[in-house]
Amino acid sequence: MHISKLCVAIVGGLLIFSEMAQAQNSQTGVVKTIRITANISDSIFVSRPEGGEWYDTVGLVATDGRQRSFTANIPIQVWTTTQGVNVSLVHPLDITRTDAVYKMEKVGVRFGDAGSAGKELGVGHATQTFTQKLKVGNGYQSVYQVQIKADAPAARNDVSTQGYYTGDLVMLFEIPPSAI
Predict the structure, then answer these.
(1) Mind listing the pLDDT tens digit for each residue in 96-135?
(2) What single string gives the DSSP state of each residue in the chain?
(3) Its domain of life (predicted)?
(4) Could you tell me the CATH number of the domain that includes residue 67?
(5) Is residue 39 part of a domain?
(6) In this structure, is residue 22 part of a structural domain?
(7) Whether residue 25 has pLDDT greater than 60
(8) Do the domain assignments include residue 141?
């Protein structure tokens, strides 16, 4: 009888030890929760005026025979469910030569109605608000112009400024918070 009590005690002890080890193992991890949300509202749509795909590349055109000043006018159609739309730049437009030796100077981005001077967009400037003019279905629509101007860099140490220059124009279009 003494041996069977000892066996029961050993088996019982092993079971208790095993459960404690499992409990300790399950409590060594840290559980964190992040709530992921999405808002699908189709409250704003930005496109080319004639529809179709968004712009891949837009070329700057020289405004003088010496190629010192360049410009581009890009038409953009904006449809919103509210009459107002906010527009800003996500980061400054830097137009740099592919070897990064030079970059365009006095780069400016303006946004406004076709034929107008538009409002200056820049990271240092506040978000610009525009009023959509045309009622279309359950929303509003207008065609705007993005105007880009840049000057060629000045040559340094007799290094030519000729070359291929690129930059990324990243704009943010939002419904004004007051309209939400």
Answers:
(1) 999 999 999 999 999 998 888 899 997 766 789 999 989 9
(2) -HHHHHHHHHHHHHHHHHHHHHHHHHTSS--------------EEEE-TT-SSPPS----EESSTTS-EEEEEEEEEEEESSSEEEEEESS----EETTSS-B-EEEEEEEEETTS--EEE-TTSPPEEEE--EEETTEEEEEEEEEEEEEPPPPBTTB---S-EE----EEEE--GGG-
(3) Bacteria
(4) 2.60.40.2040
(5) no
(6) no
(7) no
(8) yes
